[in-house]
């Protein structure tokens, strides 16, 4: 009798779980398609011929795909490869400089009793709220006094200012997941404190270091347009975002060539993310699993 009374309840629970799974998957796919739609439209427009982009209603795919827009974009903006290389150098520089400073800072916060630690953590959290446009004037004054205007170093240093707070917070969280006894064992074996960090602790949090490095690269890449408006004047040092702006004129916009250049520009961060996606997922989930 007990078994017969439980069966309808178990069946209802299974149906409820099944429907919850269906709704969850439907919402996930809908949200993903919503996010990917602009990227798809950009890539499709890059493959369309000039007349086709003005069709009404617009076509969802390229009826006669062509790669001519990828050739024409170099004719309209000959410096486009230079702008792309500059963006890669700025993003890589921001990533390396952020890790160089954030790693020892985060290790210190996680291993030592720092006076005013709560205030430091609050300051790092509060610093994440500043958008680059809010600090362009102070950054311009500082770089001018240092004689760094119109240099690669100015873009790298300015970009790192906005990635350092969150990089330090994330890395300190990851370092706290590594037991202190491992450091102490390395010190007993003759390692110095920096040696314990580099030889023992860093290999254990390597996925987290990769995740933070990619975060700094992507953030540094996305902030280049605003920073370059005040820090860069030479056309040869402009990032790709400034290069894309050259497809705009007073009376028209070269949409097919602009979308082709945008597709190429977006391909670098996407390819980098896909290449190290496994390490990013491991890094972002390490603290949650071990904590």
UniProtKB/TrEMBL annotation:
<dbReference type="Pfam" id="PF00528">
    <property type="entry name" value="BPD_transp_1"/>
</dbReference>
<feature type="transmembrane region" description="Helical">
    <location>
        <begin position="153"/>
        <end position="175"/>
    </location>
</feature>
<feature type="transmembrane region" description="Helical">
    <location>
        <begin position="196"/>
        <end position="218"/>
    </location>
</feature>
<keyword id="KW-0813">Transport</keyword>
<dbReference type="InterPro" id="IPR000515">
    <property type="entry name" value="MetI-like"/>
</dbReference>
<keyword id="KW-0812">Transmembrane</keyword>
<dbReference type="InterPro" id="IPR035906">
    <property type="entry name" value="MetI-like_sf"/>
</dbReference>
<keyword id="KW-1003">Cell membrane</keyword>
<comment type="similarity">
    <text>Belongs to the binding-protein-dependent transport system permease family.</text>
</comment>
<keyword id="KW-0472">Membrane</keyword>
<keyword id="KW-1133">Transmembrane helix</keyword>
<feature type="domain" description="ABC transmembrane type-1">
    <location>
        <begin position="84"/>
        <end position="276"/>
    </location>
</feature>
<feature type="transmembrane region" description="Helical">
    <location>
        <begin position="119"/>
        <end position="141"/>
    </location>
</feature>
<feature type="transmembrane region" description="Helical">
    <location>
        <begin position="21"/>
        <end position="40"/>
    </location>
</feature>
<dbReference type="InterPro" id="IPR050901">
    <property type="entry name" value="BP-dep_ABC_trans_perm"/>
</dbReference>
<protein>
    <submittedName>
        <fullName>Carbohydrate ABC transporter permease</fullName>
    </submittedName>
</protein>
<feature type="transmembrane region" description="Helical">
    <location>
        <begin position="258"/>
        <end position="276"/>
    </location>
</feature>
<feature type="transmembrane region" description="Helical">
    <location>
        <begin position="88"/>
        <end position="107"/>
    </location>
</feature>
């Amino acid at each position: 009798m007990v078994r017969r009374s439980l069966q309808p309840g178990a069946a209802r629970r299974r149906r409820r779980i099944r429907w919850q799974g269906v709704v969850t998957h439907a919402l996930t796919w809908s949200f993903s398609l919503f996010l990917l739609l602009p990227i798809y439209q950009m890539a499709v427009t890059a493959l369309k011929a000039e007349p086709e982009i003005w069709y009404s209603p617009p076509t969802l795919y390229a009826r006669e795909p062509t790669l001519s827009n990828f050739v024409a974009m170099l004719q309209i903006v000959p410096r486009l490869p230079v702008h792309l290389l500059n963006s890669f150098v700025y993003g890589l520089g921001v990533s390396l400089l952020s890790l160089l400073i954030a790693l020892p800072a985060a290790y210190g916060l996680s291993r030592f009793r720092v006076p005013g630690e709560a205030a430091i953590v609050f300051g790092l959290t509060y610093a994440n709220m500043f958008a680059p446009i809010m600090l362009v004037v102070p950054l311009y004054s500082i770089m001018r006094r240092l004689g760094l205007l119109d240099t690669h170093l100015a873009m790298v240093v300015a970009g790192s200012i906005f990635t350092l707070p969150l990089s330090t917070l994330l890395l300190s969280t990851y370092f706290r997941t590594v037991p202190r006894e491992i450091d102490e064992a390395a010190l007993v074996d003759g390692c110095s404190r920096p040696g314990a960090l580099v030889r023992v602790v860093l290999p254990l949090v390597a996925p987290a270091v990769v995740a933070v490095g990619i975060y700094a690269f992507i953030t540094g890449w996305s902030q280049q347009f605003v920073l370059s408006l005040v820090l860069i004047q030479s056309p040869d040092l402009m990032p790709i975002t400034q290069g894309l702006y050259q497809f705009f004129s007073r009376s028209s916009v070269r949409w097919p060539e602009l979308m082709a250049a945008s597709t190429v520009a977006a391909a670098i961060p996407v390819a980098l993310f896909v290449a190290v996606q496994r390490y990013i997922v491991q890094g972002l989930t390490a603290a949650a699993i071990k904590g």
